[in-house]
Specification:
13 helices; 2 strands; mainly alpha; about 260 residues; single chain; globular
């Protein structure tokens, strides 16, 4: 199966891009958001409401909030599927509305459902790991952001923060590499899940510098949105639309049949 998926991935090309191309993706993403703002802003409102709910549920258990927000970074690519479809329709000359983004959520395509379940399980696993690490090895309870700073980040003894950061990076890097173009590719073309994942890895390996810049932009802007919460209303759809252009700019899919 893996060999077949690898051959499927190699049946089409990956385009060369300059290092600063991620700035162009942001510009195109913003243009799509302004072209069809309603679906994007509604998605953003839903994400902001989810963040506010997470803050309420966590209460004075900041260790839980850290895990929830970390898990969000993992599952966000699949949650943005509807906005990839909006950008896809804009590129085809349509004027998509909220019904376009909602149609992408209909479980007609088992590939996207399976991918979503896998990302959800990964996010849940990291949330549990993060919470267990902080609860079990921090020198004192972590109930507030200041506690996290003093007890975990600036702890005079132990290496909880280093281990937490290292484990997070160890998980985040392959998840990013596996999803950066895979979900838009699955939405747009007829290709298997493994083939889409291998293609995503090819894009990252052939463009390490621009994709590292893109990852840094994603992280910085998402953290800004999380800190402000209301910032997610704009940042989430902006990054989602931009992510569609990452796929369209790096993957030459002319040899694959297009999904309707």
């Amino acid at each position: 199966m893996a060999e077949k998926a690898l051959q499927e991935s190699r049946s089409f090309g990956v385009r060369r891009i300059p290092v600063l191309r991620p700035l162009g993706w942001l510009a195109r993403g913003w243009k799509d958001l302004m072209t069809s703002p309603v679906p994007g802003l509604l998605h953003g409102l839903a994400f902001a409401a989810g963040a506010a709910l997470a803050i309420y549920i966590a209460g004075n258990r900041f260790w839980l909030l850290v895990g929830l927000f970390s898990a969000f970074l993992i599952v966000a690519p699949i949650l943005a599927t509807g906005l990839y479809q909006v950008s896809r329709r804009i590129a085809q000359g349509d004027k998509p509305g909220i019904e376009t983004s909602m149609a992408a959520w209909k479980p007609r395509d088992g590939r996207l459902v399976v991918f979503g379940v896998l990302l959800g399980l990964t996010g849940f696993g990291w949330m549990v790991t993060s919470a267990s690490l902080i609860i079990g090895f921090a020198g004192a309870p972590v109930n507030t952001p200041m506690d996290f700073l003093k007890v975990v980040v600036l702890a005079p003894t132990g290496h909880v923060f280093e281990v937490w950061l290292g484990l997070g990076a160890l998980l985040a890097a392959p998840v990013f590499a596996s999803t950066v173009v895979a979900i838009p590719l699955l939405l747009d073309r007829h290709i298997g899940i493994l083939g889409a994942i291998f293609t995503s890895w090819r894009v990252v390996m052939e463009h390490p510098a621009p994709l590292a810049l893109w990852a840094a932009l994603l992280l910085a802007m998402t953290l800004l949105g999380m800190v402000t919460v209301v910032g997610l209303i704009v940042i989430v759809p902006w990054l989602a639309h931009a992510s569609w252009h990452v796929y369209r700019d790096t993957v030459d899919t002319s040899g694959l049949s297009e999904r309707s």
